[in-house]
Write a structure and sequence with these properties.
- This protein has 497 residues and is of the alpha/beta class.
- It has 15 helices and 19 strands.
- The strands form four sheets. Strands 7-8-10-9-13-17-14-15 form an eight-stranded mixed sheet, sandwiched between helices. It has a six-stranded mixed sheet with strand order 1-6-5-2-4-3, with helices on both faces.
- The relative contact order is 0.11.
- The structure holds ligand BES, zinc ion (ZN) and manganese (II) ion.
- Manganese (II) ion binds next to loops.
- Ligand BES binds next to helix 11.
């Protein structure tokens, strides 16, 4: 989809369809066609409704779609994203190619408003269509979208729409990688993608192959990956967005290309979508790619801990004890709690070799995240209030919302083992998301850290709004927003007097 800002009004709108957004009760100066629909009570502007009309007379576009924005006092940026998605879904249904969205006159600022329109349009136009009839799918994509901005500053808005397009490209990359099956997106494919991103942006890249993983003593990563159909990898990419600064933000992604559960095999009903278990690593790569494209002035160390949690004669087993990269011994209680194992080694290695000043890990870590917060909110656990609150703010702005969970000492006690320094399961099966974070916490030391458990939000069984069924790419917009607002990093913001 090509999306461009045009200095058009409703009447200049050409193409197959022109969409106008209507608030309940307003505005006073409606286009005659819209006014007709309102007067006949065919359209009230209620949120979630839309009305398709054939256009005529002086109207240049072939159809008019009126999309309800709801009551003015209930209008939010998120509603705008959803309303823009409504237009795209309708256009796809009707196989229309060229659309105009008329930017409404509402109480929201123009900049977030146009961003939301672009996000809603681009993100809802996604389809995982690689394995379906290409021609058929192509027909169902919208090709051009004009955002008619009237007399507003088209140049300024276009800059923002272009930026949004780049960010949504990152979301698309993640969705494609996560939707694809694990035979294709295996650890070697992940390595290849990392190499492509490094080449595209001229980044330094380090790849530890299975031999290096053993030699370096990344024994947890090796244990998890040792019976995978492709071998484990630890891959590190470095982007120097702000060479003058000593700050380095590490983004570490769980990249389990398939999670069978291992010897603690996942049952039918849980195993089918476990190709999604590399969503953390995919998110890290998507964020890095976008950050480089947008030249975000932050130094980033992107770390991908890739392994397949397979099941075979060589698979690691419950009861085994491994010495982690950090030196702590770990008793394996469940081979299905593999994410925290690969992250522990990846994080310890990152801290030792790159000394990040902040570290964010992203992982489809626990089904308990889905139980706790469902598919709408990302549970976050961390050790630094500034980092957590920056993430919270980024979540509010992007609607990729986070909610902070506690990590009190009692939770840390639950992962103590009788026979090793720690075990990879909590005593009880309660508070599983926190238990997972408590394990990771033991490898973080004093580095400011936040853990994003995206197991609930990474993959939707049923699509909604601007998020089609399957991989969501959740986390990309959140982390790009975080990095875009990094400013003085984790130094406490000055209290404004
Ligand atoms: N990859 C899963 C978590 C998951 C579940 C991701 C659902 C996406 C959707 C993780 O490795 C796992 O198996 N977690 C276990 C943890 C348990 C063994 C402590 C779980 O959630 O049951
Ligand atoms: Zn997993
Ligand atoms: Mn698992």
């Amino acid at each position: 989809m090509d999306i461009t800002v045009k200095p058009f009004t409703v009447n200049d709108a050409q193409g197959d369809l022109c969409a106008v957004f209507l608030l309940e009760g307003g505005p006073a100066d409606m286009h005659p066609l819209v006014q007709q629909a309102v007067e006949s009570k065919d359209m009230t502007g209620s949120f979630g409704t839309s009305l398709l009309m054939p256009a005529y007379r002086s109207f240049a576009a072939k159809r008019l779609l009126i999309v309800g924005l709801g009551k003015p006092q209930e209008l939010t940026i998120e509603r705008v994203r959803k309303a823009a998605a409504t237009v795209i879904v309708k256009a796809k249904e009707l196989k229309l190619k060229a659309l105009t969205l008329v930017m409404p006159d509402v109480s929201l600022d123009d900049l977030p408003l146009v961003t939301a329109m672009a996000e809603g349009a681009i993100l809802s136009d996604y389809a995982y269509s690689k394995h379906t009839d290409q021609q058929h799918e192509k027909q169902q994509h919208v090709q051009t979208v004009h955002i008619a901005v009237g007399e507003r500053d088209a140049k300024q808005l276009q800059t923002l729409v272009s930026r949004t397009t780049s960010i949504c490209e990152g979301v698309r990359l993640v969705r494609d990688l996560v939707n694809e099956g694990s035979d294709l997106v295996n650890t070697l494919h992940i390595e290849k993608i990392c190499g492509e991103i490094a080449a595209k942006h001229g980044l330094a890249i380090t790849v530890l192959d299975e031999k290096d993983v053993v030699e370096e003593g990344l024994n947890l990563l090796h244990a998890v990956g040792r019976s995978g159909s492709t071998p484990p990898r630890l891959i590190i990419l470095e982007y120097k967005g702000n060479p003058g600064s000593g700050e380095r933000v590490a983004l570490v992604g769980k990249t389990i290309t398939f999670d069978t559960g291992g010897v603690n095999l996942k049952p039918t009903g849980h195993v089918e979508t476990m190709h999604q278990d590399m969503a953390g690593g995919a998110t890290v790569l998507g964020v890095l790619d976008v950050a480089c494209t947008l030249k975000i002035p932050v130094n980033i160390i992107a770390v991908v801990a890739a392994a397949e949690n397979g099941l075979g004669p060589g698979a690691y087993k419950p009861g085994e004890i491994f010495t982690s990269y950090a030196g702590k011994t770990v008793e394996v209680k469940s081979t299905d709690a593999e994410g925290r194992l690969v992250l522990a080694d990846a994080i310890a290695y990152t801290i030792k070799h790159h000394a990040p000043t902040a570290l964010v890990d992203v992982a489809t870590l626990t089904g308990a995240a889905l139980v706790a917060l469902g598919t709408h909110v990302i549970p976050v656990i961390g050790n630094n209030t500034i980092l957590s609150s920056k993430l919270f703010d980024a979540g509010q702005r992007t609607y990729e919302r986070i909610w902070l969970m506690p990590l009190y000492d009692e939770y840390k006690d639950e992962i103590k083992s009788d026979v090793a320094d720690m075990k990879n399961l909590g005593d009880q099966r309660n508070a599983g998301t926190i238990a997972g974070a408590a394990f990771i916490n033991a490898f973080v030391g004093t580095t400011p850290w936040a853990h994003l458990d995206i197991a609930g939000v990474a993959f939707l069984e049923k699509g909604r709004g601007y998020t089609p069924q399957g991989a969501t790419g959740s986390g990309v917009r959140l982390l790009i927003d975080l990095l875009s607002h990094w400013e003085n990093g984790l130094t406490a913001e000055e209290t404004k007097g």
